[in-house]
Structures are given as structure tokens and as C-alpha cells.
Design goal:
This protein is α/β, with parallel strands linked by helices. It folds into three domains: 2-41 and 224-303 and 464-525, FAD/NAD(P)-binding domain (3-Layer(bba) Sandwich), CATH 3.50.50; 79-218, no CATH class; 307-453, no CATH class. The protein contains 17 helices and 19 strands. Helix 1 links the parallel strand 1 and strand 2.
């Protein structure tokens, strides 16, 4: 049987593409290498607790809810309010006016830099204004038709004019966030406290925009994996053939066939690749490469994957109400105001070891870094045993450092020590309730993500901003090009085709790829 479309990868991008292809009546096959769908959007149960294995919550961005509405998929969401903490102080972001509370929090810890902070908050407000425009309406891609002239002339066209103007302003703020903040303050610790929330060398616009995105965070009841279950059910109901544990090991762009690890050869008309971009170009069958493909492979050589994380999952006998008062359901927390300085994970020398055999500097890193803390049962009480609380605590972590620790035979020791360091750091700071009340803990590393999701270097989103150039289309104005590849009849979508690329962009590019396939197959039908 020849499929009109084969989708490789069952994350959000792949499932979105499959849903729209099934909706259009296209014979579609989705192949996923893992034993489950979702990629970095997954929930799992352990000891009666439900944890999220990847993304902790996601912003709508004028994309996710319109997509679900267009498909007729029902997912129950609750708002996922965010708090920001330094030391023992927390502020809760309730609306745009909460930025004043953030300003006061920074001034409390850096009183001598009050004027600098005021200037920085002014920049945040400016970017928040851009975001109000960029995500000011539901993305028109998720409208079935544009026949409502009142909508076109009173909503869409005015928005498009503002969009173009504000995109241009936003793209002017391309400087890495640390460099950009240095224009307003010379206090390194203050710069660290603000920038530690973000990936290395995140462009200033993207970093500062997060204060708007935090207000747009949503959480699906049942855990983030509920979104995946809903998309999967829709795809299957529309006759999409979904096969897990079916990694693609090669494809022949001339014969338009894919070969699975099980030795099956399957024909396609169009191929949508939503897995790792490196793997796509490496999977071209021997003898089928072209100069364009070889050029692309050369461009990918030596590139660095986006940031990854170390995550510890905590099972505690502490009642949820205690954490609700302390930090809320979703927090970005820095234990001390000193900042990381030069002890970022990517600068730790793996050759200089402490008496236990682990690199010197790791303990200091975990004592000073910023953590993302997510508590699922504070959004949905059914996600933990009664009277108990599960926490997900993450910190940015360098893949290459952890890979070297593994090669030195210290991987399991590193995980155990890192878990202890994190619990110890939190217990000494704003979370003394953890002391003696952690019933169980386990962790994942960048290597875990690489193994389970097959993302390059365990990256959780896109390519690293440290790459020059980033080997993918990565600007707002060029997003329509993100689905193009150097291979005929092959389209790409997902986290590897736009930077930054969170869940909404994965869905958006999945829809774009599906639309391209639908257009191509319509032409063939004629």
C-alpha cells in the first residue's frame, strides 16, 4: 500500500500534521520510534504520582486553542500561574501589572541598582507590548475560511499591519540577553538573576517576552500528556495508521520509500519529518544523496543542540497547600541573589575533579542556579495521593559535561549527588518543608532525553543560540520557510525547524507541513 503521506515522529508536530492529513482524507501513516507518542510532551505515573516528563505547561500563543477548536478536539485546561522567587521571597504573576511586583523584588535584593532595574523593566514593558500585538488574535492559519469581510477588514488586516511593524521592532533586539542587559547595568549578579531563567545567549526579545508568555501558561487536566492522548484519538478516528516502536532507519527520496528498523519498506507520495533534523539527512539511502543534501550535511557538522536539563522528581508527604502558599504551581526560583557568575554548567572543567571523582564546581552550580519547579497536583488534585505532593525540579544542564561524566564512569554517582544537592539547596532556602519529608526521588539528564526522545544532544528546544549561523530558519518573518528541506517531496516540522520552538510553534509547523502535503497531493489527483 502506498501512503499519500508518511509522518516520521509522533510528538506534537507529527501528531498535528497527522490530524490535519487525516481530516483531509489523506492515507497517512505515522511512525514513532518510541513505545509511546508525545516526545517531550508526556505524563507518566509512579507510586501514585503523575509527573510530566517534558514540558511543564505551555502557552496558547494564539495557536494551541484555535487548533483544537478547528479540529473539534476538547481538552480541559486550567490556567497555570507562574511565580518568581529569589531566596525566601516570591511574587506571583497575575496580570501585566504584576511586572511592578517583579521590579520591587529585584529592587529589594539589589537596592543600589534601583535606577538600572527601572530601566530594565521599561524594556520588559516595551517587549510585552510587542507580544500583545504578535499574539493579539487567534492565528489565521487555524481558520477554515476567510469569507467574513467584517473580520478581514476590522480584525485581520489591521492586525497584519501592526504585526509587520512590531516584528521588525522585535527582531532589532537580537543581542544575547546578557549583553543586552549589560547596556543598563554593570552589576553582574543582577544580570545573572534575570538571565538565568533563559537558555544560553537567548536573544533579548525572546527572553524579555517571557514575562508575557508566563501570563499565557496553560495546563491540561490530567497532565500535559492529555493533549497528546486527545490528538492521537483524533488522528486514529480519521483513519491515520499510527505505529509506535517503528524507527525509520533510511528513506529513498528517488523511489519514495522509507525503511523501518523491522525491515519493512513502505511507499509514500510525500514525507513529513518531525524528528531530529540531523537524523533526517543522515537517513537518506546510500547512493541517493545530492549536492544540496551534502551541502546541508556539511552545514550541520559541529553544530550544538539547544540547552538541556537535569530534572529531579520528588515524592513528598507534604500537603499541597503548603507548597501553594510557598511558591504556587509553577515557579522559577533562584536560591541566592549572587548569580552564577562563571560557574555555568558549560564552563565547568570535567578534567578538574573533587575527591569523589566528579567535576569541581557542580556543587556550586546547583547552589546558585535558577530552578523551574512544577507541581502538577496544584493544578489537578488527582495527580498525587491525598495529602501528598509531587514536585518536578529542573535546572539547565550541559549535555557535553554529562556525556563526559558518563564516559568517566561517574554517571550514576553524578545523578545521586545532583539529586542530593538540589534537595539540600531547596531545603536550606525557601523549602525547609522538604527536610525529612521526601519519600522518594529519581532523576533524568540530557542523556535520558537523548535516549528516549532521540533529540540531538538531549536538546529540549531547537538549536543552540550559540551556533553561528543557526542551521534552521529561525525568524518570525521566515516561519513559512521552516517546512522546506533540501530533499524533494520531504517536509520538516517541529522543534528543529524554528528557534525558539516550543509547543505552539511545533503545532504551527506541523499544520504548515500538512497543508503543503495536501496541496501537493491535490495536484497529483488532478
Amino acid at each position: 500500500m502506498k501512503y499519500e503521506a508518511i509522518v516520521v515522529g509522533g510528538g506534537v508536530a507529527g501528531l498535528t500534521a497527522a490530524c490535519y492529513l487525516g481530516r483531509a482524507g489523506k492515507r497517512t501513516l505515522l511512525l514513532e520510534q518510541a513505545d509511546h507518542l508525545g516526545g517531550l510532551v508526556v505524563s507518566f505515573e509512579r507510586d501514585g504520582y503523575v509527573f510530566d516528563g517534558g514540558i511543564r505547561a505551555f502557552e496558547n500563543s494564539g495557536i494551541v486553542k484555535p487548533m483544537l477548536r478547528q479540529l473539534g478536539i476538547s481538552v480541559d485546561f486550567v490556567r497555570s500561574p507562574v511565580s518568581i522567587g529569589i531566596g525566601s521571597d516570591f511574587i506571583f504573576l497575575k496580570d501585566e501589572a504584576s511586572i511592578q511586583d517583579y521590579e520591587a523584588l529585584l529592587v529589594k535584593h539589589f537596592p543600589r541598582e534601583e535606577a538600572d532595574i527601572r530601566a530594565i523593566i521599561g524594556e520588559v514593558r516595551k517587549v510585552m507590548g510587542y507580544m500583545d500585538v504578535l499574539y493579539g488574535i487567534d492565528n489565521p492559519l487555524f481558520l477554515d475560511s476567510l469569507t467574513d469581510t467584517n473580520y478581514i477588514f476590522k480584525t485581520l488586516l489591521p492586525w497584519l499591519m501592526k504585526y509587520r511593524k512590531n516584528v521588525k521592532k522585535a527582531m532589532a533586539l537580537k543581542a544575547p540577553i546578557n549583553d543586552y542587559l549589560a547596556r543598563f547595568t554593570k552589576n553582574r549578579a543582577l544580570i545573572d538573576i534575570i538571565s538565568q531563567h533563559f537558555f544560553r545567549e537567548t536573544p533579548a526579545f525572546f527572553a524579555l517576552s517571557y514575562f508575557s508568555l508566563y501570563l499565557d501558561y496553560n495546563y491540561p487536566m490530567g497532565g500535559t500528556g492529555s493533549l497528546i492522548h486527545a490528538l492521537e484519538a483524533y488522528a486514529r478516528a480519521h483513519s491515520v495508521d499510527i505505529r509506535t516502536k517503528s524507527p525509520v532507519v533510511a528513506f529513498d527520496p528517488d523511489r519514495r520509500t522509507v525503511q523501518t528498523a523491522a525491515g519493512k519498506t513502505i511507499e509514500y507520495h510525500e514525507l513529513v519529518w518531525t524528528a531530529d533534523m540531523n537524523a533526517m539527512y543522515r537517513s537518506v539511502a546510500p547512493g541517493r544523496s545530492t549536492p544540496r543534501i551534502e551541502k546541508r550535511l556539511h552545514e550541520l557538522e559541529g553544530k550544538i543542540g539547544g540547552d538541556s536539563v537535569f530534572t529531579v522528581y520528588l515524592e513528598t508527604d507534604v500537603p499541597p497547600a503548603v507548597f501553594a502558599r510557598a511558591c504556587g504551581a509553577h515557579s522559577f526560583y533562584t536560591p541566592v541573589a549572587a548569580g552564577l557568575g562563571n560557574i555555568t554548567a558549560d564552563r565547568i572543567d570535567p578534567n578538574v575533579k573533587d575527591p569523589s571523582g566528579l567535576p569541581v564546581g557542580l556543587a556550586d552550580y546547583f547552589a546558585n542556579t535558577t530552578y523551574e519547579i512544577s507541581i502538577p497536583c496544584l493544578r489537578d488534585p488527582s495527580l498525587a495521593p491525598s495529602g501528598k505532593t509531587g514536585l518536578i525540579v529542573s535546572a539547565l544542564m550541559d549535555y557535553r559535561l554529562v556525556a563526559r561524566i558518563r564516559d568517566d564512569g561517574q554517571y550514576e554517582a553524578f545523578k545521586k549527588r545532583a539529586e542530593e544537592w538540589i534537595v539540600g539547596t531547596l531545603s536550606k532556602a525557601a523549602f525547609p518543608m522538604l527536610r525529612g519529608h521526601v519519600d522518594g526521588k529519581f532523576s533524568s539528564t540530557p542523556l535520558t532525553i537523548e535516549r528516549d526522545v532521540k533529540s540531538y544532544q538531549g536538546a529540549i528546544t531547537g538549536w543552540a543560540f550559540t551556533n553561528d549561523p543557526i542551521p534552521a530558519e529561525h525568524g518570525f518573518s521566515s516561519i513559512l520557510k521552516t517546512i522546506d528541506t533540501a530533499i524533494p517531496h520531504v517536509w520538516q516540522a517541529g522543534q528543529w525547524t524554528f528557534a525558539p520552538a516550543g509547543l505552539p510553534i511545533s503545532a504551527l509547523t506541523g499544520k504548515l507541513a500538512a497543508d503543503a502535503v495536501i496541496r501537493r497531493t491535490k495536484k497529483t489527483a488532478r
